[in-house]
Each structure stands twice: as C-alpha cells, then as structure tokens.
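Exercise 4. Each item below gives a protein and its sequence. For each, produce the structure-token representation.

Item: Nitroreductase (Actinoplanes friuliensis DSM 7358).
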Amino acid sequence: MSWVEEFRAHEAIYRRAPSAHNTQPWTLEYRADEIVIGIDPARALPGSDPGGRDLRLGLGAFVETCLIVAADAGLSVTYDSRRLLAAPSPYVTPFTAADVSARRVARGAYRPGVVSTAGLEPGLVHVPSRDLADDLAVADRWMFSTPRVALELRDWLRLDPGDPRYRLDGLTDRALELSRGEARVLASALRAYPVTRRLGLAALLAASGRNLLRYDGSVLVLTGDVSLDAGRRLLRTWLTLGRSGLAVHPLSQLLDCPATAARLAARVGATPLAVFRVGVPLHEPVRSARRP
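Answer:
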C-alpha cells in the first residue's frame, strides 16, 4: 500500500479541520505519489470574506491538520506548493489525531474565567470579553443588515434536520445551540430577508447575541500577515487550548464589519487575522458535520 493510500484511510479525521461557516472549501486530488490540495470556489465566502482571509486561514488549518494526522499514523509527509509529498521523516509536532478529533467549537455560554496566552503561538493578544461586547453587537447588526453577508449566511445555515445538507456541512441549529423555536424564527426571517430587512428586523436578529461577551472571560486575537502559515498557527493554538479542556468560538463578524475591524486593529496594535472566544463551555457542544 502506498503512503497516499495509507493516508487516505484517515480521511475522516483530517476532514475535521475547521473552516469559516464550516464550508470545507478544500479539494483533494489523490495521485500516485502526491496529494494536490485545491480550493472549491463554490465554497468561498465572497460576501463576508471578499479578501480571502478566512479562506487562507482555513486552508492553512487544513494543511496543518493533514500533517498532524499523517505524523500520528507514522507517515513521512511534507507540504509544498499546494501538495502533500513524501518526506525523509515525519512532521515534527506535539499533537496527535486524537487532539484533532477532540477539538471543540462551542457557541453557547462559558464559565467565567480568564485564559492566559502563555505557551501559545506567537502573535496572540488577549482582550477581556466585556471590552468587545458592544462591538460584537455592532458587528452582528452589520452582518444581518448587509444583504450580501446575510444571504450568504443563510446559504450556509442548516436549521432544519430535514435539510439534505444537514449532515454534510454548514452550521446546524444544534451547533449554534438554538432551540427549535429559535431556529424556525431565524430560518423564516432569513428566508424572507428582503422583507424582514425593510421591516428593521436585522437589529432583532442581532439582539440574540448581545450578552454573549458580557461576562468575565477571554477573547484571543491572532495577529500578523494573512497566509497559510497563520492558519497553521491558528490550528495549533486551538489544539493547545483543547488539550487544556478549553473550547473556542470564532467571532469573525468582528473582522468582517469594517468599523469593528478598525477598532480591533487599533486596540491590539496589529493586523487582526482571527478573533475567538475561549473558555470552558457550560454544555458540551454538538460537533459540526463533515462531508464524506
């Protein structure tokens, strides 16, 4: 059996890599002695991510996940120019496939508590959660009142278990920790978006998250240049946090909204690439689906 075939046997694990809206935008072409990683443009987010920041972070996180899973399987694999190739020795990493499987995204309430950045990847800045509560409300209103962004979100929400894509990709009602009633209201509002926007319901939809950061907790901001390497650092950060029993909750709307992105950049004194809440969730989160 070739290393490509051995690696492919672990596909269910490395496809657990994170991506914005759980779009899973990567493609894989398995060849005799290499694996070519590409991007499916239909799974990009031109509305909320026109510059491709989240796309590149996601691709980097996927590459890092692949290398970790390969190393855990005893395979010597490296990455170069969108390709996974055979290498003289395994990728050196402290992480395992079990760490990849254990990573958690939790979008519900967290226990109070501050997280230290000690021992994490470079370029991380800590911000007290309360300090970003007002800006998150602004970013949520912008998200629901900006048609290209709201309709794109609608396309990636899976709010009905009867949706044929419910167990494939996107963000489900359970992953978002919505009750069935809340999911139905959100689905109806987004389905009739042109009408609900004219009625001013964007502010009402945004209000559901107004208290999300109003507790004594931590938000971490990854800074630096947009690159695949940044996505790899982000994945390693999340795995390190996961080893300590911590979950994360991406708050990308703070970077998508121009006003809050500018304020966050001024606050951290650098270019923010990813922003996410960190802590111990009050309830064990439901995992997002992955394509086979």
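Check: The radius of gyration is 19 Å.
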